[in-house]
Amino acid sequence: MRIISPDNVCNRLDIDRYIEGSGSSTLYHRMQWGPLIQETFGHQFFYLLCADDDGSVCGILPLVHMRSLFFGNSLVSMPFFNYGGVCAENDGSRSLLIDEALRIALEVGATHIEFRQETPLGNGFPVKTRKVSMRLELPETPDDLMLAFPSKLRSQIRKPLREGMVARIGRFEELDSFHDV
Fold this sequence. Notes:
Layout: E1 2-4, H1 12-21, H2 33-41, E2 44-51, E3 57-68, E4 72-77, E5 87-88, H3 91-108, E6 112-115, H4 142-148, H5 151-162, H6 175-180
Parallel strand pairs: 4-6
Antiparallel strand pairs: 1-2, 2-3, 3-4, 3-5
């Protein structure tokens, strides 16, 4: 196994396939976030990939170098989101990605690294536990969801619907409606 540059991956679809197939990936592992953060906020972005001997992706770690008067000089995976830390299929890949993150931290003068993980890495790094995620399994149909709510909440939902309230998802075509509200 080795660390490779995303530019060395023949097909970016290989990265997307890895992310979609990995049990520990999130949408924040997608490569598109880094350039967006870099362009918007000016933070340097690193996208680490680990590949096995045949060149197949077996680990990903997106990192953003952040410098702040208040929070110091750090590498964060991924800032502005709760998740996006080390995503690897095995301990060897995980270790290579962490070692490379440590090398980059020294290179850029970062005083700490924050891996935003759902499951702890178990490597002795300090762990913050102040963020939580709450997930609810959704039923198959909207009607089943409505029945899962207590009667008072169902009544509170139905009242605006009876009075003509509608919800729409849109883009620029809904901008005037947004401003009206």
